[in-house]
Amino acid sequence: MSKKRKNRDKKKKQEEKQMKQEKSNSGLAREILSYALIIILAIVLSAHLSVVVSGSMEPSFYRGDIVTKINVNTYGIQEFNPNTDVHVGDVVVYDASWYSEPVIHRVIEVKNINGSNYYIIKGDNNEVQDPEPVSPSQIQSKVVTIGNSLLIIPKIGYITLWFRGL
Asked: Engineered SS bond to 144: which of 23, 68, 104, 127, CB 3.0-4.6 Å?
């Protein structure tokens, strides 16, 4: 075999090896990118989901269901304004002074108290309204509705309740 041919074959093998390496690197980059996108999607989705921990809203949704929600503030983005975008019939998630966890209940009335709007809120399955009027600053989220139906993922949240011991 001639020296030129050996050099040509050697160069061809090096080029093939380099192409394989580039293809491998490209595949690895795509894989890393897809994992990053999955993680980002999971973070964004988790900020828009809440597990129902009690039966206070039955039959609208049940313990262990997951409600989808829009937030007042998600990573610095305001999705709705609790002063103007909350109405009677909306289901909201709010910080209750009378309970340690966020509460998911329905707005049954908007009241003006000393020149400021407050929401009277009640669980659909409760006999009485929540103990205190809720200010717009206490509202964290609003449950997403499509038409007149709440957007709910049934039963999936039981896993979370089990891990939390609830």
From this structure: 68
Which is higher by pLDDT, 119 or 4?
Answer: 119
Our answer to whether residue 105 is catalytic in this structure is yes
Is 90 considered catalytic here?
A: no
Find the catalytic residue in 50, 56, 60, 141. 56
Tell me the torsion sign for CA atoms 17, 23, 27, 33: positive
Asked whether 81 and 74 are in contact (CB, 8 A), the reply is no
Query: Of the residues 50, 65, 130, 141, which is catalytic?
Result: 130
Whole-prediction pTM value? Answer: 0.76
Which position among 50, 60, 105, 141 bears the catalytic label? 105
**Which has more confidence, 3 or 103?**
103
What share of the chain in percent tops pLDDT 90? Answer: 60
pLDDT digits (tens, 9 = 90+) for 13-49: 777 777 667 666 677 788 888 888 888 888 877 889 9
Q: Among this protein's residues, is 48 annotated catalytic?
A: no
Dihedrals φ, ψ of 165, to 5°? 75, 30
